[in-house]
Write a structure and sequence with these properties.
5 helices, alpha+beta
Length: 110
């Protein structure tokens, strides 16, 4: 799970703001991560949500929305806006609030 190219290209896009990696992992995975992995960029490790707690459904895509919810429940971001990317996404130019004109409570997709 490398963010090297994403981090480098995102910085090259001149995207303003901080980069925070939000990742889901089991306790075993968390214990296996090196300090370099956890500190190469600001990192928030959420528990794995791949298995639904009520239904037992095994569906890894549950991780993304639940990780964002966990991040927001356990931290207080200073930023007014948040851009959510997958690790395989590359920014070629910045997403600028002034251009996107987001409204409270509405998401913008590109």
């Amino acid at each position: 799970m490398s963010l090297g190219p994403t981090v480098q290209l995102s910085r090259g896009s001149q995207q303003p703001g901080k980069l925070t990696r939000v990742a889901c992992c089991t306790d075993d995975e968390r214990n296996s991560y090196s300090d370099a992995y956890k500190t190469s960029v600001n990192t928030f490790l959420a528990p794995s949500f791949a298995i639904h707690p009520r239904t037992g459904d095994d569906y890894p895509p549950y991780n993304k929305p639940e990780a964002v919810i966990s991040y927001l429940e356990h931290t207080t971001p200073e930023e007014e806006y948040m851009l959510v990317l997958d690790s395989d996404m590359i920014l070629r130019r910045p997403f600028l609030v002034e251009e996107m004109k987001p409204k409270l409570g509405l998401a913008i997709g590109a």
